[in-house]
Structures are given as structure tokens and as C-alpha cells.
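Example S7 (C-alpha cells).
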């Protein structure tokens, strides 16, 4: 079973071919990071126009790399939300055209669900171990959520951010400290091996599994204004990262313990953060899963993987499927 996946929810245009839900035959990603870096963040209109230029070449390259044609594909999967409306429209339009031309099943995939399923790519043993119930910590530029997953397609929202997402906070703090865009990798790199002298506040929001990072971001801003020396930037970055990771890990472990989860699963771009991964594994009483780094950020292989398991259900989409920029998972 070969699924062609298409992902275009933000500033990456990606197409992939995945076999039997776990084997990545090809995974082509065109990133616009260098384009948006000059603006300090993603410009939606620029992103969608770049997608229009790249969608056909990226899909063609994915098929060429996999050494197959559209006739060898069994289903077409595409991200239809959440994300930037213009960006989503490009991917969904391409998927509809291919599904119509080949008369193959069309499956719309929630972008966040795709990130979850990235954990099973290239490791079929993980799926066969029947990991449910598990606790999903989704951390990215636009989302920070704790979701209990009791089976394929079965989710319960336990907590989410009340303001900035973790990845968004990383980008904003990196901008404050002059570290550039994207902020996550920059802060992770400059903080590596450091124990910060800065003890920034944690917003625990006791009694809930929700998150808040706006106050932490403001604390970093005040510290940078009080002590503007460039030599202090690594310690400030490390202190910020320690505070974010402490809250993410503590709440995920608490939620996993209280729900009887067999595993904790980390998903989304921030899952590539080295401190988050190491601290979660060090402190968790249950096994921790996370994708390899190249599969943490937006990619089409995770969309195709998710669609493979969706094919086991009777649900199918048709050419009337539309984008849903605010689509929720639970």
C-alpha cells in the first residue's frame, strides 16, 4: 500500500511516498526558512506564493525519488488544516487534482495528527507494541497541547496554551536576544551544555494541564534590557529553555501518570529540542517516544503515514473537501 502525502500548512512544501504506513520511500521538503528569516517570521502571502511555484516540482521529485508513477499510488493524502489558509489551499488543490485524474481515494489529514504519527515512521515495532493509551505532547510554532490518545483516531484534549505556543515563544525570545529565525534551533544550540544563572518564572497554572509562556517571554525581555551585555545571551537563552522544558515535562508526566498512559509521545517541531527530549526521558516513569529530528518538523511522510491507518476506517473525503485553518484534533 503506497500513499502519496502532501503537506503545505505553513512555509514548507513537502511531498512523500510512504509504503505500508511506516516505510518512507521518498520525503521531499522545500523549506522557505531563508526567505522568511529576513522578516523574522513567516509571511503568509509570501508562503502561499512560494508553494504555488514549488508544488508541482516537489511532487514530481517525490515520485521520481520513489521510482514510481502516479499510477502506482493507492491513495492521496493531504493536510487540510490547521494552518495558513493560502498555504493549505495550494496543497489541497494539488491533491484534489491528482485524486480526480487518477480516481484514487482522497484523504484529508489534520496536521497535528500527522505530527503524532511521525513517531511510527520507519519503526513498525513501535506500532505493533500496542502503545495505547498514550500521552501526546504536541509542541510546535503554533500549538502546545496535551492530548490523551486511546486508539487510532481517538483523542481527548487535556490542556493547551492560553497564549503563546512553545515554538512561538522560542522565536520571540530568540528575536529579543538577537539570535535570528527560526528561534528554536538557535536557542538549543547556544544553550547546549550550559547551566543558566537566570532562574526565570514558570507558569504552573495549578489545577489544569494548560500552558502559558507570555510571562516568561516578558521576563526574558526585562532581563535583556537590564543586562544588555552580549556575553549574557547564552545564559539567558539557557534559562528560558530550562523554564519551558521544565513546565512541558512536568505537566506531560503528571498527565501520563494520572491517566495511566503506557507511553509519552513528543510531537511537533519543538520535539527536536535536545533538552526537552533528554529531560523527558530522564524524568519519565514510562517509555518516551519522539521522531528522529528530520521528521519532527513539517513533512509529508507523517501525513502519508497517518492516512495509511485512516484507510482502515470507512471514512473518505471527496472533491468537495475544503481547507480548515482552525481545525482541531480533540
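Recovered sequence:
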Amino acid at each position: 500500500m503506497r500513499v502519496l502525502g502532501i503537506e503545505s500548512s505553513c512555509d514548507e512544501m513537502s511531498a512523500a511516498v510512504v509504503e505500508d504506513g511506516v516505510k518512507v520511500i521518498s520525503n521531499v521538503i522545500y523549506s522557505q526558512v531563508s526567505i522568511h528569516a529576513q522578516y523574522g517570521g513567516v509571511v503568509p502571502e509570501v508562503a502561499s506564493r512560494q508553494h504555488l511555484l514549488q508544488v508541482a516540482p516537489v511532487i514530481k521529485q517525490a515520485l521520481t525519488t520513489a521510482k514510481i508513477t502516479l499510477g502506482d499510488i493507492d491513495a492521496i493524502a493531504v493536510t487540510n488544516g490547521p494552518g495558513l489558509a493560502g498555504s493549505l489551499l495550494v496543497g489541497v488543490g494539488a491533491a484534489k487534482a491528482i485524486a480526480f485524474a487518477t480516481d484514487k481515494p482522497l484523504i484529508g489529514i489534520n496536521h497535528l495528527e500527522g505530527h503524532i504519527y511521525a513517531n511510527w515512521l520507519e519503526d513498525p515495532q513501535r506500532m505493533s507494541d500496542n502503545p495505547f493509551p498514550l500521552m501526546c505532547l504536541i509542541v510546535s510554532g503554533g500549538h502546545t497541547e496535551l492530548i490523551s490518545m486511546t486508539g487510532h483516531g481517538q483523542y481527548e484534549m487535556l490542556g493547551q496554551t492560553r497564549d503563546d505556543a512553545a515554538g512561538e515563544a522560542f522565536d520571540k525570545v530568540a528575536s529579543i536576544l538577537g539570535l535570528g529565525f527560526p528561534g528554536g534551533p538557535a536557542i538549543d544550540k547556544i544553550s547546549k551544555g550550559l547551566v543558566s544563572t537566570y532562574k526565570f518564572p514558570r507558569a504552573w497554572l495549578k489545577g489544569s494541564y494548560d500552558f502559558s509562556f507570555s510571562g516568561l517571554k516578558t521576563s526574558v525581555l526585562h532581563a535583556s534590557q537590564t543586562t544588555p551585555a552580549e556575553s549574557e545571551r547564552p545564559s539567558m537563552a539557557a534559562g528560558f529553555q530550562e523554564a519551558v522544558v521544565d513546565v512541558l515535562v512536568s505537566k506531560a508526566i503528571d498527565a501520563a501518570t494520572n491517566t495511566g498512559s503506557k507511553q509519552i509521545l513528543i510531537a511537533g517541531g519543538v520535539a527536536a529540542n535536545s533538552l526537552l527530549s533528554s529531560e523527558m526521558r530522564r524524568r519519565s516513569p514510562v517509555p518516551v517516544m519522539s521522531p528522529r529530528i528530520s521528521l519532527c518538523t513539517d513533512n509529508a511522510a507523517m501525513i502519508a503515514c497517518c492516512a495509511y491507518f485512516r484507510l482502515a476506517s470507512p471514512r473518505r473525503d471527496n472533491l468537495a473537501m475544503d481547507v480548515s485553518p482552525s481545525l482541531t484534533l480533540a
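Notes on this example. The first strand starts at residue 2 and ends at 7.
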